[in-house]
Amino acid sequence: MTDTQTFRAGERTITVRKDLRVPMRDGVDLAVDAYHAPDDTPRPALIAMSAYGKELQALALTTPPQRRPSPMWDGCIEAGDIARVVGEGYVHVIGDMRGTGDSGGVMIGNYNFGGVSQGQDLYDLVEWVAAQPWCDGNVGMTGISYFGSMQVLAAAERPPHLKAIFVSGGHFDFYETTYHGGVMWFMPRAAREGRGGDSGIAHTDVRSRMREVYPPEELNRLVEERLRDPDVAAWPNLVHVLKYPENREFWFDIVMNPLDGDWYEERNPITLARNIDIPVYLQIDQGRGWTVDGHIELFDVLKGPKKLDIGSYPPMQSRPWIEEHDKMFRWYDHWLKGIDTGIMDEPAVSVFVEGSREVVTAAQWPPKEIAHRALHLRPRHRLSFEPEPMGAEYAAPDGFYQAPLTVTDTVQTLSWSTEPFEEPTELIGTGAAHLFAEIDQEDTNFILRLWDEAPGGRRQLVTTGYLKASHRELDEERTTEGDPYHPHTRAVPVEPGAIEEYVLRLYPFAATFLPGHRLVAELSNDEPLADAHNALLPPDAFHLPVGRPVTHKIYRDAAHPSRLVLPFTV
């Protein structure tokens, strides 16, 4: 039975209808709570759905927002500012996806990709909400990250009463969410298991898609094959996951699928988004390049009214999530209430440029004309617009040896930097790093981070690039200058001792290097355990370290033009 309560939240009086049961077309019920003003006036509704538990989202009413690196920051409190939503004249509907929280049903695989389409469930939910007496028939959606991804899946199903969505910080290409350049990223583990600053999924009935699809004998063979990867075998948590997957079923599926392909592409939101024709506002902050990349990719395929808003560093917003609400209500007041807020008179693309701290607007991404220019790696750790004229016998390679983290706490890095810029220098777009390298093993990681270093040594991350050496193959038809494309559909071991060209894609960014500042490129095969940037991310937001000792030689001579190819505005 529905429990209706009225209470005070600051200066506002809020009524909540608890544990409403929403029937899905297959007979499963989803559980939602509906928060609204005390009177019975029908209002537009904003739906927030995830697997993290609606009761956790209710902490937005009582927990002051926390910013990283606060230990009270919980990455799963993402549904939005309930009191603000109600105060702006909307109903805030917060619920649990099937197999989680108070909802029924089973979730099979990440985002239920092995079971009932989550878009199908969201279609049924949108139409149910629109038919309630407390809703005026106009429905939007809200929430960051997981909640943002759900909005895209819902809109792709085209429920008639979903009039617009406002997506902040979503994750779209699921392979790119879990493997950056082929290198496993641990943060999805936190979101599913609940670790290092995340409560995780509110499991009730969730199952591994791999365990549903493969018979035990075949699955055991695949597990043993995965354990032959030295990186996986050297990380105790992964060995445990593979040997005992029952309580980590979604993380097990991710670990077991290190290559892109049908497993990830079946319900890729970027592909599904071609069905979306309602207005879509996309918002993302700089500092987590893969999410910036996904928002740009999504923006490019949308056909209806759309906005792309790339905000400022730092990369992690508050939890409970409260940012971007001013923009969100301008968007929804226009599309759900019919109020002319002027938002559609503004350019489609808005980009905050780090360094200059200017906002650049345009009709497209990138918002300015750019020309890719090369910065060459040179001896004495320099970056120069001029290529190296000498051969390898004179311009000997740089190098570093990285022992596995089982035997050391030290992460080795190589760095190269420009001379101080003499005038403001603006870069906006994607880039590439061409590294001619020799390693003495069959595989390694290449992790490149670009920094803006101010006089005195203070620095801020600009962008990153990742590539697992065995994933170095390029799709030549889709690769362009400054924008390489790796299919990641197979792993090709490296011949130890061979010099190979590795092309890393540098995630989209926007930065102006001010006079006196330097651009610093920092290369490693593992991530530093702590630095100024990583402190802003949850503790588990790092990548799987290399599990074998590797010696790296980086050639940067006339025959091996290692370089950065960067998007300078013109």
From TrEMBL:
GO MF, one example: dipeptidyl-peptidase activity
Signal peptide (from-to): none
SUPFAM superfamilies cross-referenced by the UniProt entry: alpha/beta-Hydrolases, Galactose-binding domain-like
Domain Xaa-Pro dipeptidyl-peptidase C-terminal stretches: 329-565
Coiled-coil zones: none
Keyword Cell cycle recorded: no
PANTHER family tied to this protein: COCE_NOND FAMILY, PUTATIVE (AFU_ORTHOLOGUE AFUA_7G00600)-RELATED, PEPTIDASE S9 PROLYL OLIGOPEPTIDASE
Listed name of the protein: CocE/NonD family hydrolase
